[in-house]
Amino acid sequence: MALFEREETDFGTDVGTRALSVIAVENHFVERVYEKLASSYDLFFGPTLHPGRLVARDRMGITPYPSNCHVTGIDLSSSMLDKARERVAREGIRNVRLLEMDAAKTTFADDTFDIVYAPYLISVVPDPVMVAREMRRICKPGGKIIILNHFRSANPVLSRVERAISPFTVHIGFKSDLDLPAFLAQAELRPESIEKVNVPKIWSLVTCVK
Ligand SMILES: C[S@@+](CC[C@H](N)C(=O)[O-])C[C@H]1O[C@@H](n2cnc3c(N)ncnc32)[C@H](O)[C@@H]1O
Which ligand 1 atom is the nearest neighbour of the CA of 118? Predict the structure, then answer.
């Protein structure tokens, strides 16, 4: 006889209710931060965060500029969208539309997209759980929901540092202490995989299937 007992993961008993971060932000604050950051964003967050984007693209199973699909990009910041529009024009890409929209409350119908991908977004928004629910709503059944983000470390020392600096990192565009187990529990996401990406490997690529 073989008896298998699932190992209990020590995420704490309050994952369903605890605060995801020590810091709260609102959309207008985030918008102001990214209006200022847009011109230098690629310099600071372009190459450093790019390895994670490449792994995400692999998990999506797409080529760099897939011509056999329509791509919709949304962002809250008009300045960030202007940068994206410049790039789309520069690369001569035709199958991309870019829209100013809040990821927590989009105007898309239920079950619209085959892949819904949030790169470096979820620790920026006021309500990560609301964004995750919206991602699931607009994803087709069987489609992929992919979240690429930095989350608070499981290492107690690092975790304490990330909590302490979060009130400061919001001014450069993100909360450094977003709690992954609590986020997954509250968003009711059951990932197929969670991979550590970038250098150092403190960002996570979370892949789910609806
Ligand atoms: C860290 S940047 C990530 C940019 C880009 N996706 C990348 O891969 O580097 C976060 C982006 O999320 C946008 N953002 C913040 N809140 C948002 C919201 N509620 N809805 C849509 N976009 C939002 C910001 O304007 C900014 O462009």
Answer: 6
